[in-house]
Design a protein that fits this description.
The protein is α/β, with parallel strands linked by helices. Helix 2 runs parallel beside helix 4 (about 135-150) and helix 3 crosses helix 4. Strand 1 (about 10-15) and strand 2 (about 20-30) form a beta hairpin. It is about 40% helix and about 25% strand. The protein folds into 2 domains: about 5-75 and about 155-260, Rossmann fold (3-Layer(aba) Sandwich); about 90-150. The protein has a 6-stranded mixed sheet with strand order 6-7-8-3-9-10, sandwiched between helices. A 4-stranded antiparallel sheet has the order 2-1-4-5.
Length: about 260
């Protein structure tokens, strides 16, 4: 997956607050078409790190490079999806997908065409005119993903997008995300606290330490692609889950002790 120069570089990134350091000298790369997950114990700064990369939170030091160019704030190449429900309740699924294009000044015909293509890609045919309160949790997240993808970002940041869903729905949506990524070649940086999810989806897993968050290890996930959720039942998958947990266990215990004080 490491073809050419990295599309995203995080160099010596730190975030300090008045009374503690959240992120300490973090660095890694993401290559075009790669799926990289960030996993770590609660409170290690995973979401803060993603928000700094997106330009939503100012960094204390370090830099973020997109295609070799340092960026300070948000970048047109980056799309982001949050765990919290973010689609507009007063817009239909289709209208939610059109929103960003509308803000960019796209014509009604252009944004409708692109949104309908996303409806088909996301498997939401027949639900395009439904409002969010008429959709399941999984469908709402598919609409949120489609709303980001319709803008054609080169890099998609995802902050625990399936965290509020039940385990079965998470697995199925993970499989759907892999299918979509395979079809359009999307580069994804994905934050999760779920080890199985990280291994199921990723090419590489970046493991964070307990606070202050640092990169403890990066594990290659050498499972074949195209990949479905059936991979979960394989011996190799179990071995990789164990490898990630071996690195993560000590940090999870540290984090537990930090919060128990």
């Amino acid at each position: 997956m490491k073809n050419g120069a990295p599309i995203l570089e995080v160099r010596n990134l730190s975030k300090e607050y008045s009374d503690f350091t959240a992120i300490d000298n973090v660095g890694f790369e993401v290559y075009r078409h790669e799926f990289v997950s960030i996993i770590g114990p609660s409170g290690c700064g995973k979401s803060t790190l993603l928000e700094m990369i997106a330009g939503l939170v100012p960094k204390s030091s370090g830099e973020v490079l997109i295609k070799g160019v340092a960026v300070k704030d948000g970048h047109a190449s980056i799309g982001i999806i949050f765990q919290q429900e973010s689609i507009f309740p007063w817009r239909t699924a289709l209208e939610n997908m059109e929103f960003g294009l509308q803000m960019q000044g796209a014509s009604k015909d252009e944004r409708r065409k692109k949104a309908l293509e996303m409806i088909e890609l996301m498997g939401l045919g027949g639900f395009e005119n439904r409002y969010p309160d008429q959709l399941s949790g999984g469908m709402k997240q598919r609409v949120a993903i489609a709303r980001a993808l319709v803008m054609e970002p080169e890099i998609l940041l995802m902050d625990e997008p399936f965290g509020a869903l039940d385990e079965q729905t998470r697995i199925i949506l993970g499989e759907e995300l892999l299918r979509i990524r395979q079809e359009i070649g999307q580069t994804i940086l994905f934050v999760t606290h779920n080890i199985n999810e990280a291994v199921q989806l990723s090419d590489r897993v970046v493991i964070m330490s307990a606070r202050p968050g640092k990169v403890k290890a990066v594990i290659d996930i050498d499972l074949e692609r195209p990949r479905t959720s059936a991979v979960i039942s394989t011996e190799k998958f179990g071995r990789l889950v164990g490898e990630v947990w071996l690195q993560l266990r000590e940090e999870a215990l540290k984090s537990f002790r930090q919060t128990a004080r």
